[in-house]
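Inputs:
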Amino acid sequence: MLTLILPTDTALHRLPAGAKLAVLAGFGIAIGATSHLLLLAMAFALVWAAYLPLGFAEVARLPRRLWPLWPFVVVIGGWHLLRGTPEVGLAAILRMLAVFAAATLLLLTTRFDQLLAVFTTIMRPFSPLGLPVARIALALAMTVRFVPVLAARAEDLAFAWRARSPRKPRHRLLTPLALAALDEADHAAEALRARSASV
Amino acid sequence: MSTASTGIKLQAAGVALGGRVILHPLTLDLSERRIGVLGRNGSGKTTLLRLIAGLIAPEQGIVRVEGFDPFVDRTAALAALGILFQNPDHQILFPTVEEELAFGLVQSGLPQSQALARAHAALAAEGRAHWAKVPVSTLSQGQRHYLCLLAVILMEPRTILLDEPLAGLDLPTQLRLARRFEVLPQRLITIAHDPTSLKGVDRVLWLEAGQIVADGPPDEIIPAFTAEMARIGARDADADLAD
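Outputs:
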């Protein structure tokens, strides 16, 4: 989720990140305020239509992007079916899908540093109260950097395993991956020290 | 030591890690513009570079860069020294090129907007303006090396420490980087196991098992080093374990 950003430049990419976040927040509040199924379905359709500037391929890909939510759909739907309140369940599912589709659209069209800038601006009033805003921003930026790095390390370890074993690695790679993460942390600490006197 | 404090001085400075001696006490006075450190894997080259950069403290002895202790006085060290890690992935801290470049400048006191402007100007001057917003994960190995070098140059240190800067890169990238190093006005201290990457240096230190075995002009040291490496390679190289 952290690095979804599509490399193509569309009208949605050029909108300010703060405005997009405000719209997302407003949208979330608005669909939380209604349980009208038709309105909720229309809201979801509206978000789906908002994918149009990204091209038809992205419009068609939305169901696949939302697919990981299926366990929640099953649990929420099942629970409300058992309780005999299917409309409430359907409303909850529609809300969830609409908000996820909208949030995904935001992540697809907004670079992380823009989100980070909004975060820093919003949090600035709290910094005199002792909240280390700059450090949190640094930690968030480094997270975005190192999530793909660790994913690549995990893949390398899996390749190294597969090169020498016919069986699946499963949990046996967790220990080396944890050690690799600590190793990365050591290197990152050294790199921080090499360029910063204060961190 | 108090006079002409522009060089790098080591006085009986040694390093031990976990009870094992990595660098025996070294006394060195480094003031040449281009210095090479030659040695095999595990000879202590990288430890020497880290010691000079102030990333680690000496177990014994004294390290002084331009008269100050680079481990203690980090602010002075950052102004004086830049270090290029052997593996760019160990150096890059940020997800995009411009953030990576701006970080060091922000740390030295520049506001974020000015730091970004400087980063963009530097990229433009290198004909790489289009890199600014690119995620670092999409850069090739050679491009990441180049990014790390740019990040170091931007901080305008007076000395740059290079750890195997050409190892593992394809030939055109090696040539491109070597050309970039050549025109740098800074003092360069380059670590290498391959003497061909030390072309044009003024002085070569040959490190073996944490000790300096030779120190002098390249046309004297490099042939001796190459001959010794060939001699070791002809035997069963690399069978001995460190004690």
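Remarks. The mean pLDDT of chain B is 90. The longest strand of chain B covers residues 20-30.
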